Amino acid sequence: MKIGKILCVAMIAAMLFSLSSCGEEQGNIPYIGENGNWWIASTDLGVSARGQQGSSGTQGIQGEKGEQGEKGEDGAQGATGATGAKGEKGDKGDPGTPGKDGAAGITPHIGKNGNWWIGDADTGVFAGVYAEDCSDGLVFSFETLNGSAGAVVTGYTGSDRDVVIPNSFVNMPVIGMHKGAFAGNTQITSVRLSANMTTLPAGAFKNCTSLASVDFNGAAITQIPSDAFDNTAIQSMILPAAIKTVDPSAFSDDMDIIVYISSSETQIPSGLSDIAYLAFEANALPSELAYLANSGARYSLGVAKGSVVYDKALGMYLCKEGAGYSVLSYTPETDGLLSIPSVYDSLPVLRIRSHAIVVPEGVTDLALGSATERLDPRAVAIEGSLRSVYFPASVKTAETGAIVGKSERYFFGAKTLPSGFSAAFAQDLSASTVLYSVAPGTLCETEQYLYISHADAVTLLCFYGNVDTLNIPSTLGGKKVTCIKTGFFEGYYTRKITIPASVVTVEKHSFSFTRYAGTAAGSPQYYSAEIYFSVLDPVYSGCSYDLDFIRIDAEDTTPKTVYFGGESIRQTYPGYSKNVSA
């Protein structure tokens, strides 16, 4: 093995001599670099300057252990010297004068051009990136808002109608949006905000005419600014509890907004009570909010947390309570007859809460659901004037002022006013006709008739029009017309009325003749009329015809002739005989 090592050393020496000689001729002397390789000038030869380690030799035989020598004697320990006395503590020196504060450092910030700035100096380094098509057409920049850095939506170039703003973009939270990011986009129908957004700009979604819904997604937004949702298709919205301020111009005038107020809250967003429906968890207003009782604000008490639901198809807010639902807020877009649903989600709709139903001017008649039991104060507000309101027999309670506005007639399924009804349950009752014992059924209408559809028959409630000849139909909706209620007809122009044989009941004052209101010179104030019954004399036909079924103005002297069985029998009865001429 030693011979092998000697040969290796000799070979390396020869190589070094050869390289050294060559280097002198070429001017490049090899050397060992820091990495342990041979180098020539600036070139690493990739050859380690250290040779391979030789194999270890065989270990020799261990010699015998020698004998242990004798232990020497221990020396004597010297004596310990005495401890010296401790000196007294010196007085504490006076504190030095504090040095002056150093100059405040300059924190970099993002300038209006999107670059990083230090003080007034533009570094020229762009702080973020603009990326189109980075999230389904959303365009972002990186900025600071309210002291926080993150991604901000600056525009939308996509075609999706349902826009979802992500919670983060390239690992940065999406914290806001620019004023013009969506404004005026007429294609989008819904938007879900980033959960990391803290603000909305003024006019955020103004003139987004197709936008029907916005999901706040738990964002900690505290203010709804001016024109944020103006001129949109949004019909309703539940605002997050974090909202503290709402600009009066934030929403379109016809929007319906629900704000839930927990029992611990004693403040409501500024300006909100004029435009939103407030649902309070408490059964009484907090003392700080007692003013709402006389402010005209729309609110309801005792609404359980988590009970509020919104039905988009109905456009109605309801709340679950007890064995059914209550109507919280409903502003329908309809004309003609408005019927309140009896059932929602397989449960009965039992209650109409305060300020719940706003009846627009296009509605002519209102029918409460057949399961309705209670109307709170100001439950129904009539913007125009109704021809009728129908109370099914299920309604047991109506508070004072439950109906605000005018209706010509009130129909009741009950035989008398229920004991739970206030004597002033509706406005201007003295100017309205109140009728009872309207058999249970569904309120229906055609262009000329308002009627109740029963299981196998029809009751006529009102005729709308003033025609020369009136032929009352024998069927409506595939069912026989069997009853004509009090107040059915009121006119002056009609000359002939025919009643079919299917009618077996005609109530008192079913037909009224009134004075002509025209002012044309020489025009008659009253008109004569003839009434034809298809049946013979009701005394012998088993029918129920009230003797006073005609009501005639005391000043009317024009003839009102009644025939039974076509023209077979002509009779006179009290109530119109004074005005009948032979």
Protein model, in words:
By secondary structure, the chain is mainly beta. Among the domains are: 122-234, Leucine-rich repeat, LRR (right-handed beta-alpha superhelix) (Alpha-Beta Horseshoe); 307-438, no CATH class; 449-579, no CATH class. 5% of the residues lie in helices and 35% in strands. The protein is built from 2 helices and 48 strands. A hairpin with a 4-residue loop joins strand 4 and strand 5 (115-118).
Query: What is the rounded Rg?
Result: 48 Å
Amount of beta strand: 25-35%
Amount of helix? under 10%
What best-fitting shape do the alpha-carbon axes yield?
A: elongated
Q: Mind summarizing the main beta sheet?
A: 8 strands, mixed
What does the oligomeric state look like here?
single chain
Q: How many helices does DSSP assign?
A: 2
Question: Which ranges are low-confidence, i.e. pLDDT below 50, for 5 or more consecutive residues?
Answer: 1-27, 129-134, 577-582
The SS-based structural class is mainly beta
Number of strands: 48
Spatial gap, N to C terminus: 159 Å
Q: How much is the average pLDDT?
A: 80
